[in-house]
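Protein entry
_____________
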Amino acid sequence: MTDTRIPIDLLIIGAGPAGLAAAIAAKRAGVMDLLVLEREDEQGGILNQCIHNGFGLHRFKEELTGPEYAERDIKEARDLNIPVLTGTTVLSVTRDKQVTAVSRERGIEVYQAKAVILAMGCRERPRGALAIPGSRPAGIYSAGTAQKLVNMAGFMPGRRVIILGSGDIGLIMARRMTLQGAQVLACVELMPYSSGLNRNIVQCLQDYGIPLMLSHTVVDIKGRERLTGVTIAQVGEDRRPIPGTEQEFECDTLLLSVGLIPENELSLQAGVRLSPMTQGAVVNNHFETNVKGIFACGNVLHVHDLVDYVSRESMQAGEAAALYLKGEKAPFLRSQVKDGQGVRGTVPQRLDIPIEEVTDGVELMFRPDRVYQNHFVTVRTPEEVLLSQRRFILTPGEMAEVKLTPDMLSRVRQKTLTVEITEEKQTT
């Protein structure tokens, strides 16, 4: 029987900013036989509907819109002759890196890859995950769906809007809906702090006089065919509604901006171990998962604030995949990375440190579990404190990072690292 599997050195799933950056870096590093698969009909991922500016400040040192940022990577991939198949849905990925995909033009195809980079991005948490009582009328959208309707389809979801959750997409849509003539009545956040970037709170809410109601949530939804109103109540420290604090708002639209979830169904099929904190893959400092030759990067690994960081991380993953394909992996000793007090979801979760001289540092990224002011980010082993750096503000809405130098890494082989937030500067 003829083997119908298509051999490929490197297969990248997703042609958003993560997948394109990984492909570009891998091609630059010498991988000639590679392919990118993208389920949408266009490359660029979520950036295509993000027509606001603010992208590229770190990477390109200039302010771009989402489509402008995406176009730079699309053009570079084209200039490097990187093949990208759009309109192609990946159905499965196996532990031995067999990838099954389907498209209208080519039907079902099975690829046998030597290495795979997972770059599928993330999706929005739906209403069903929120357990909000009330009816099921029209007029309730995720913030990203509303963004696509307004920016790409030219369709206005409604005129009187409440936004539940203060994620960045929700904040940006508060401004966008206002600019399109809608009245945004409030942005309602369950937690006592916003889950979005501070700059978006200022530019998208405060500049337009839109109130941010912290420690509040929607407790009832009104309407049968179409949304007619919501009930909002204050919540206590236990996040339960406080009786007697209810407020009624007449509205025809409710936008949900209540968190993003990495798209890891394919990762699970491949036997990739996921972190309960990030809901993405557990990776080492080369972004390799527990399955040899399968890498993960971008929002499928952990949800980022800035696309610039997605691109940086994904380029490192592409370079690491290229080294893997060349067999250039030096003997290493493994160290584990743990979340300490105040820290959630440190990535990477393990460090593979060369036995010989260490020449490169490693960046650890995490989110604090609440707002901290004038605290210290401390990294320690059981024997010593590697660093303790003052941070004037740490908030869950913004990723924090700390860099371990080659000297630090040379001292932590086969040891457990703990990243924590402390009130005082720590010393050995």
In short: The CA atoms of residues 366 and 400 lie 5 Å apart. The domain at 331-428 is CATH 2.60.40 (Immunoglobulin-like).
